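User: Sequence in, structure out. Go.
Assistant: Echoing your sequence, followed by the structure tokens.
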Amino acid sequence: MSLCLRKSHASLVGEGHTTWSSSLPQMECSKKTKTEDEEDVSVDAPSLAQENGEKGVFHKLADAKILLSDCLACDSCVTAEEGAQLCQQNAKDFFRVLNFNKKCDTSKHKVLVVSVCPQSLPYFAAKLNLSVTDASRRLCGFLKSLGVHYVFDMTIATDFSILESQKEFVHRYHQHSDEQRVLPMLTSACPGWVRYAERVLGRPVTPHLCTTKSPQQVMGSLVKDYFAKRQNLPPEKIFHVVVAPCYDRKLEALQEGFSTALPGARGTDCVLTSGEIAQIMEQSGLSVKDAAVDTLVGDVKDVAVRRQDGAGSDGHLAHVFRHAAKELFNEHVEEITYCSLRNKDFQEVTLEKNGEVLLRFAAAYGFRNVQNLVLKLRKGKFPYHFVEVLACPGGCLNGRGQAQTKDGHMDKSLLRQMEGIYADIPVQPPESSAHVQELYQEWLEGTDSLRARETLHTTFQSPERCTTSLDMKW
């Protein structure tokens, strides 16, 4: 069944504050839709101990309040089934597993694994007034004090996502022609943007989405496939939690499987925003001993925190641009010059030689900029080979799960602080990661294997576009 969605202009109050009307019966959204003059809403998440009428170890912690801030790309477009599943995407489900492990026989325990997005660490560094490395150790120590068994950094999953995106762009560039228009390539790492593209824009856009899985989806595969096999565990014995900057990751978790060999299996069981974790930390009262983050490959501890080359994102644009310049034109690009066009969230990067533009890339953050690009694409006047698309203005650091004031507005001071912290994290190109190359061989049977293709790539829904969906005013 195709889903046709229309934007409700009356409810538009700014970037990301949206409601949708649908040709299907309207479903109740699991998140509150708020306006500029309304305060953010929170609800209590009662502990399992309360529900069972007994006092448990995590009684106090599980009472942490969970924000129900609205996400960027969903509201009444959430199906009834998705709405029911979203109710489990909160700290209550996390503590349910923690309490279960405390009560039951060890043979019945779930192995709790937490993966932390790179853009979440600057938030904890700012909140805790620590260096990003010390904040990572403090967060890891806190999670393990709760009963989490393993804490991983998701940067390695982003490495896979970028490397596969690089290869796909070069392949599309060679394949592109007037008869087979496979360019531009639009990134698919942002779940808010992907959901909007699939549910609203449809066929004019979805064929241009990069088929590489997002870092969260890749991490789900690493944890529930590679890590599970190394630990001799069935995937269902692992409860995988992702700490992320935005609420859209919760929706993404509902849709992701991790292997064609195990259809229906979910790579991520629960997503908690950075803000939700911070609330739990504030209310815990636990004495925490710092701990080193675990590694998927090797036994090295205290590996330095690193990031990809993006100002507030995973850096797909910068890495793909350098790779394409080298592979397609044998041009080595060291410094990338960004040119702001309409606003600071719409930037352009070009590769020129002898007065000719060889590559033209863009970064479009926030739906206003996205809409302008979509209109150009529809009119056949699209000048770009590649666009890094993110739903949040300012990039992932500005995710609604961490960069908001208590009244639901953007915390500009905190965002500037996070941007400074993030910029100081050393950049390591994904090509230089020995662990990634080792995983390609050990886990995926090679960089260009069928197993790598099936594990690291996906397909997208392509409903027919609603006739008014591309004519919306933002």
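User: And one key feature?
Assistant: Residues 1-76, 465-474 have pLDDT under 50 and may be disordered.
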